[in-house]
Amino acid sequence: MIDLILTIIGEILIAVGVFCSLVASIGMLRFPNFFVRLHAATVGSMGGSFLPIIGAGLIALGSDFPDKWMFFGGLIVAAIIVMLVSPAGSHALARATHRARVAPVEPKVTDHLKEDEDEKEGEKD
Amino acid sequence: MNTKTVISLLVIISSLLAISYAIADQATGVIPQTGLRNLASFYLENTLNPSNKSYWTASPEATSAIVWDYRGFDTFFETSVFYLAIVGCTLVFELYEPPKSKTTKQTELGLTIIVKVITKIVGILIVCVSASIALHGQLTPGGGFQGGAALAVLPILFIITMSRFALDRKVNDTSMIIIRALGLCGIGITVILPLFLGFITNNNAYIIQNQMKPDALVSLPSTIADKMMGGSLWMLNVSEYIAVGAGFTLAFLLLSLPERSFKKILEEEKYATY
Amino acid sequence: MPLIETFLAAYIMLTSVATLIISLYGVFYKPHLTKKIISITIFGDAVNIFSAIVGFRYIYPVAPPILLTENPTAQDLTNFLEVAVDPVPQALVLTAIVIGMAVVSFMVFLALNVFRIYHTLDTRKIAEQRKRSEE
Amino acid sequence: MNLKKSIVPIFLAFVVYVVFSGSLSIYDISTGIVVAIVAGLLFSEILVKNVSKSLSLMRLGHLIRYAFYYFFVAEVQAHLDVIKRILNPKMPINPGIVRVPYEVSSDYAIVGVAGSIINTPGTVVIDIDEEKKLYYVHWIDVSTQEPGKCRQAICESFEKYLTKVFD
């Protein structure tokens, strides 16, 4: 009984992950610039990979083969590492791109970071 | 068209023909195959066979058994190739003294605080995961090579996020050379251990012997606390893990030396006038 | 063997051979040393994939070469032999990857020293500089 | 080398090792203890600064409460919001980079809040100014440019929980 419940929960999580990945890829195509696309990529990393990894772990726990706890544990640790590392990656990418000014922040409402950086450079001159 | 072009064209065309022949004429066995080759079936049948212990390795993982038991000598020499490559790396840099950090505040170096703190937390996870991969090499996919390669990710991350000088106190060239030498010593001791045991018990024994053979009645422990240990496989995996991790760390540390400090040395030695 | 699996096998074979040939082309004809090193790593990966396919079995079900029971009976072993793939190419690939990585790092070291002496990694410019210094 | 400092890293390393190995046999526990002690002693200096904070069980309870809030409320809301924006034919986005002041002080709290902001779709921390205590956040829907209101909209809920955990 509990195996069935675990399997169903895992399959639901994987289905949600498939949906999130699809939406993220559509967003990557539709969004106008690099920084807005990062938001679509975040949908892909949390909804599209964190959830399905945990879902796969639950399915492994629900089926009956030896060493199933090993698969479950490995997947949980992998999911935690994905959750910890993906913000660091997005942040480093976005910061480097903005500092190098290789991607324009257009369209935009405002860009306070550029204002502050320009101010600092003005002080140096 | 000079001779060089002709030779390289010949090499490319002949390799293309050779591989095509191998695939089309089934020189490497039936590809894609459905059966099992004789050698493979021998290894698979004997790697954990309690009823016929004359060729067994006491490890349920056939790949690890081949790497460190059946083909142990091959792996031994491949390890020495790895060792010599790292020795070559250090020799290329031997003339120079590594520069010391001039900046006192570590916060000025590297990326932002977000990346630094996350790297520290992930670092401890990487150590545990790679150790688990190496220590379960005789039971599940994994082993010394894979664990060491996973461990070598850690110095790359630390060098990128907080600069090389954040590591300097504990992790430097000298300590890495010592740790790698310890790992290699572990491999050497495990390789000679059967001979020593045979000498004590007055039996016949071979180098890199793991379990007892019909003509050599010396065997390393096959189980500890009801868990399969695979005798020498476990010790060799752990030693290889330490050696590979420390060796790659050494290579990355040397590669990440700042270039401007070398330019000064080169100019002093009039080395750059070629 | 069904048609689709034959097709897939032939496809994987052909792509790995094509990768191999393209990387050989890169090693011979690209003048930049970094690109040569990248080509060599691609060559090694193509060879590894090729040998992993050589050890694969096109059957269903197929299993990794790991026994899941700790005290197998004779029946277990026969079942295992029917589904397990060939472990020998896997063992070769396993060590080849680490050795390849060590050799590539050694090549990177040598390229770094070349850069320190000639201030470039382009083989054509290096040849020019050597000619000039000989004159 | 402070032994009290390394209690939490050792415990963390042991849990990760045993979970990754996936079994509780004697072999796993004994090797796990050895690996955890080595890893914990190596990382204790750089991971833990304040011993009493790291050993407090109250803070662990708050962390678990925060995890529930984060996974089941914040993430779900943010995902639904961004998914709606992507699938809407008109694509109502209004992007820009705004200053967001923060009030937490310790390293872990700063990183925890920043990580939570980045991991919820719709907001990405582009840069951080530790002297002025400012995040520069790229926000998909800039409804206000005033720093106080931005803080209310983006990171106040995370700060409320994480202050109790890390400060």
How would you describe this protein?
The complex is a heterotetramer of chains A (125), B (274), C (135) and D (167). Helices cover 83% and strands 0% of the residues of chain A. Chain A has 125 residues and is mostly helical. In chain A, helix 1 (2-30) runs antiparallel to helix 2. The radius of gyration of chain A is 20 Å and the shape is elongated. By secondary structure, chain B is mainly alpha-helical. In chain B, strands 1-2 form a two-stranded antiparallel sheet. Chain C has a single domain, classed as Helix Hairpins (Orthogonal Bundle). In chain C, helix 1 (3-29) packs antiparallel against helix 2 and helix 2 packs antiparallel against helix 4. With 167 residues, chain D is mainly alpha-helical. Chain D starts with 6 loop residues before the first helix and ends with a helix. The mean pLDDT of chain D is 87. Classes of the chains: A mainly alpha (125), B mainly alpha (274), C mainly alpha (135), D mainly alpha (167). At the A-B interface, helix 3 of A face helix 5 of B.
Question: Which descriptors apply to this entry?
Answer:
heterotetramer, A: mainly alpha, 83% helix, elongated, D: mainly alpha, 3-stranded antiparallel sheet, 62% helix
- The strand count of chain A comes to 0
Q: Any idea what the radius of gyration of chain C is? A: 22 Å
**Low-confidence runs of chain A:** none
List SSEs of chain A in N-to-C order.
Answer: HHHH
Report the average pLDDT across residues of chain A.
Answer: 88
The helix fraction of chain C, in percent, is over 70%
List the helices and strands and how they pair.
The complex is a heterotetramer of chains A (125), B (274), C (135) and D (167).
Chain A lengths: L1 H29 L3 H29 L5 H33 L11 H13 L1
Helix pairs in contact in A: 1-2, 2-3
Chain B lengths: L2 H22 L13 H9 L15 H9 L1 H21 L20 H23 L8 H8 L1 H10 L10 H29 L21 E2 L2 E2 L3 H24 L3 H10 L6
Antiparallel strand pairs in B: 1-2
Helix pairs in contact in B: 3-4, 3-9, 4-9, 5-6, 5-7, 6-9, 8-9
Chain C lengths: L2 H27 L3 H22 L19 H10 L3 H32 L4 H12 L1
Helix pairs in contact in C: 1-2, 2-4
